[in-house]
Amino acid sequence: MMMTSRRFSLAGLTVLAAALLGAAGCNTFSYFEIDTKLDQLTFSNELAAQITICHMKVSGATTDDFYIQKRCPPVPTPTQGRFDLGVIEYSTFADSGTVKFQLQVFRGFGETDKIGEGSIDLNVSSGNTVMGNLKLTGMATAMP
Length: 144
What we know:
By secondary structure, the protein is mainly beta. It is built from two helices and seven strands.
């Protein structure tokens, strides 16, 4: 039986390793924490209690479209009533630019009866957490 041995030079292995690392890419997350509240001047407790859908649209340096499940509809707290939607955490591979977060809230089934919205633009800080405050304004036509 004949055995064949293959020899790889150290330089060849280094080039191969560099190529594999380059192909894998180095992505760094950018993080956002958005403290989200309903404007108490345009939302009553009654209107806030009618929220059934929270729809977030993300645009700019990255794009996304998702529904907030946690704290939507808002859960009453002793200090904030129904006005606190909590902190929305989001991450992206975008490493520069501006990200626009637009949150719309609806009542009923589907997205036909919008009762409030708000948006915030935040600058990406690669590898870091950017914090922001998003206040949703109630629609004047939505008051009960």
